[in-house]
Amino acid sequence: MCSLSVSAQVAIGKAAVSNTAVSLEFGTGNRGFILPWVTNTAAVASVVNGTVVYDLSDKKVKVKYNAAWKDLSINAAGTTVDPITSVDGVTIQTAATEVANSTAKFAVGTVTSTPGILVLEDANKAMVLPKVASPHLNIIDPAPGMMVYDTTTKLLTVFNGSVWTFWRP
């Protein structure tokens, strides 16, 4: 079992967090945040509203919202096959030893029993997604389940393995 809790702010790809209202902040660069892959959202038990995953059953990005799963991909199903190497990412995911450990967890903020592999929970902090200008043009070979904030369109952007979907508030 692997469990780690941190009651602080975390910066990834940069020296320090630049905003006191942030629990997790990413550096600059054409990189995204890859969501956890699940075999089927229907099989995921005890998730809370706000949980975001990449569902392998239909290859779409989904969020748990109002006790149901909402499709964030909206377009046709994606793919897990890398177009450059022709390797199916599912074979890599299935072989990973951490997949078998359902209790693995990393928490940032106030530690609770909320299920998840990365839990950001705090009363007054949020996560800032990686910021990329025109990710559909600037992220080479994005991974299925990738999520970024597009600084050009100022929209949440998710990649389902085939297409980018841009979300307005």
Characterize the structure shown.
The chain has 169 residues and is mainly beta. It has one domain. It is 7% helix and 34% strand. The chain contains 2 helices and 15 strands. Strands 4, 12, 13, 14 and 15 form a 5-stranded mixed sheet that branches. A 4-stranded mixed sheet has the order 5-6-7-8, with no helix packed on it. The longest helix has 7 residues.
User: Roughly what fraction of the amino acids lie in strands?
Assistant: 25-35%
Mean pLDDT: 78
Distance between the termini: 38 Å
Helix content: under 10%
Low-confidence stretches: 1-7
Compute the CA-based radius of gyration: 16 Å
How many H/I helical runs? 2
- Elements, N to C (H/E): EEEEEEEEHEEEEHEEE
Q: How many runs of DSSP E, i.e. beta strands?
A: 15
Output the structural class. Answer: mainly beta
Global shape:
globular
List the defining traits of the structure above:
mainly beta, four-stranded mixed β-sheet
Write a brief structural summary.
This protein is mainly beta and 169 residues long. It has one domain. Helix content is 7%, strand content 34%.
